[in-house]
Specification:
InterPro entries: DUF2254_membrane (IPR018723)
Keywords: Membrane, Transmembrane, Transmembrane helix
Largest sheet: 5 strands, mixed
Protein name: DUF2254 domain-containing protein
Order of helices and strands: HHHHHHHHHEEHEEEHEHHEEHHHH
Structural class: alpha+beta
Pfam family, one: DUF2254
Number of strands: 8
Number of helices: 17
Radius of gyration: 30 Å
Strand order of the largest sheet: 1-5-3-8-7
Helix content: 55-70%
Length: 448
């Protein structure tokens, strides 16, 4: 995957592509349908003509002018509401949630319908001829009727759009959308943990004199072209290790990985130069993180919402607790999947490319560290963090549990440093003990 995911994401996350397509189709329809009117209108049966626009040229021009004027006003209103929603989502929740609104197909379709109706009405208006024009009067009845139908559709779309927008800006809806997108990403990229995956080949380690693979462009690692990396490694008879995960910040001139000869012999100078260039081209960077290959992006968004809700200006711990609930569900799903490095092999089954994935320890730290720091004074937030660790303990494997125990120790230390009511302190202590019980019970259940 290389530039393709970046282009697809750029199109999905922009508001203009679908409205632009709607305007182009409207222009084509506004030019073509009046010509069709001239050819077939006289052949339409009277039983159908009765349902078409029956006014004269002056009435047709009035109707089309009213449609064009009203639709451009409605379009401006829709754009204004969308901008206000984006501002609310950015300031109240997280700037990284703007992608969710920009990718909303209903918003894009509504804007496309309004602009298409406006453009179509203007295009048809130029074909209406009155007697004052010095030409035979002409009223494109089919075209004007279609403009009327599009206007009715726009009215219904406006009502539904307002309802959709009111539902979309609810924090529960935004958290659900982030959760769905993140779950789809990890299910697409991570295999289920099982005998076939847990017993795989260990990723090879680089030698001390491995070749650094420098990055050409600064930005976030957005996509890795696996085919290009594998082809470059095979051509150089080398092994390539990319130790930066999608979503990592890359700086031009710094290494994103290393490579070394599979045979152990030094790589030739031309081979080294070509391998560095091909690897740099295979690592697609962007100015922002995208979820195409970024497993941790959903957790980053949820954590942003939680920390924003815990800020003094917002002070909404309930939203933070909801966000932590979604983070817990994602972490439990991640714990059941294979987070070991992805290995790409050549035709002979030899490992040629090693792509690092985020570990459960890194993902758990991402989801827990900041809410624990900013919500340290709120017993409800600390209680939800304890439940998150307990829920994760029930889905973890033995090698993952020391990480959970480490975060539990941090949580206990954070609780001990606060001046809570004795009742709250006892409740938090009981929850922490329940995490220990879950870890120990799973240890016992896994024992032979």
């Amino acid at each position: 995957m290389g530039a393709g995911p970046l282009r697809r994401d750029a199109l999905r996350s922009q508001l203009w592509p679908l409205p632009t397509l709607g305007v182009l189709l409207a222009v084509a329809a506004g030019v073509g349908l009046p010509r069709l009117d001239m050819r077939i209108l006289r052949h339409i049966p009277p039983s159908l003509t009765a349902y078409l626009f029956g006014g004269g040229p002056a009435a047709a021009r009035t109707v089309l002018e009213a449609i064009a004027g009203s639709l451009i006003s409605v379009t401006a209103l829709t754009f204004s509401l969308t901008v206000v929603t984006l501002q609310l989502a950015s300031s109240q929740f997280s700037p990284r949630l703007l992608r969710t609104f920009n990718q909303d197909r209903y918003v894009q379709t509504t804007l496309a319908l309004f602009l298409a109706t406006f453009t179509y009405a203007l295009t048809v208006l130029r074909t209406v001829r009155t007697e004052a024009s010095g030409q035979p009067p002409f009223v494109p009845q089919l075209s004007v009727t279609l403009a009327f139908v599009l206007t009715l559709a726009s009215v219904f779309a406006l009502v539904i759009f307002l309802s959709h927008l009111a539902r979309k800006i609810r924090v529960e809806t935004m958290l659900r959308d982030v959760h769905i997108d993140a779950d789809a990403t990890l299910r697409r990229l991570l295999p289920e943990t099982g005998p076939a995956t847990t017993g795989g080949t260990t990723a090879p380690g680089p030698p001390a004199d491995a070749l650094p693979l420098l990055v050409e462009t600064s930005g976030f690692l957005a996509a890795v072209d696996e085919k290009a990396l594998l082809a470059a490694a095979v051509a150089a008879d080398a092994v390539v290790l990319i130790d930066r995960c999608p979503g990592s910040s890359l700086i031009a001139g710094t290494p994103a990985g290393v490579a070394w000869s599979r045979s152990g012999a030094p790589l030739a100078p031309d081979t080294r130069r070509l391998l560095v260039e091909q690897t740099a081209r295979a690592l697609g960077t962007a100015s922002e993180r995208i979820p195409e290959q970024d497993i941790s992006f959903g957790l980053r968004q949820l954590t942003d919402v939680a920390t924003k809700a815990l800020s003094p200006g917002i002070n909404d711990p309930t939203t933070a607790i909801h966000a932590l609930s979604h983070s817990s569900a994602l972490l439990c799903e991640l714990a059941r999947r294979d987070l070991s490095p992805r290995l790409l092999r050549d035709d002979r089954g030899q490992v040629r490319v090693v792509l690092r994935r985020p570990t459960l320890a890194e993902l758990l730290h991402l989801a827990v560290a900041q809410p624990m720091q900013y919500g340290a004074a709120d017993p409800a937030v600390l209680a939800r963090l304890s439940m998150l660790l307990r829920e994760l303990a029930w889905h973890s494997r033995p090698e993952q549990r020391p990480t959970i125990a480490d975060h539990l120790a941090r949580l206990r230390a954070t609780t001990a440093a606060q001046e809570f009511h004795p009742g709250d302190r006892t409740h938090l202590a009981d929850l922490a003990d329940s995490v220990d019980e879950a870890l120990n019970r799973r240890w016992t259940a896994d024992a032979p």
